[in-house]
Amino acid sequence: MNSAVQAxxxxxxxxxxxxxxxxxxxxxxxxxxxVVGSCASDGEDYYAVRVDLIDGNSNxxxxxxxxxxxxxxxxxxxxxxxxxxxxxSNATWPVNxxxxxxxxxxxxxxxxxxxxxxTSITIQVGAxxxxxxGLNPGITALAALSAAVLLLKKKLTRKTN
Length: 161
Prior knowledge:
By secondary structure, the chain is mainly beta. It has one helix at 137-160; strands at residues 10-18, 22-23, 28-39, 46-55, 61-70, 76-85, 91-104, 111-125.
């Protein structure tokens, strides 16, 4: 059995992200991804950067963008923009960002994956949740009544002395 192993043709030197760390429920947000790198480009293959935003709760793609590099990918610096809508209720929203450099054409298939990267971010949607103590109202009333009785008893003790 003869199987060929092919190395990735692209080298990425930097991937950067800009995104809002907070958003209002239902707000439209923009995630900007910068990709700097180079590919072993002979001018015959067309290259592009694809960025997918994946909702960390559902694992569904919520936004996808394709940004062309072009036929000359020997050195590139591209910026991709992805728009998405924040959830409609307050929550800490996990979002995964998948970055790909793809090559169309060539001799080994229609779309060849030459690079991929995955990063996780979180965006606070709405107000930060406040922890709830879950106290029983009856216990709270009993504690308040006990405190009032102790204060009254202390005051009465001082008057008699």
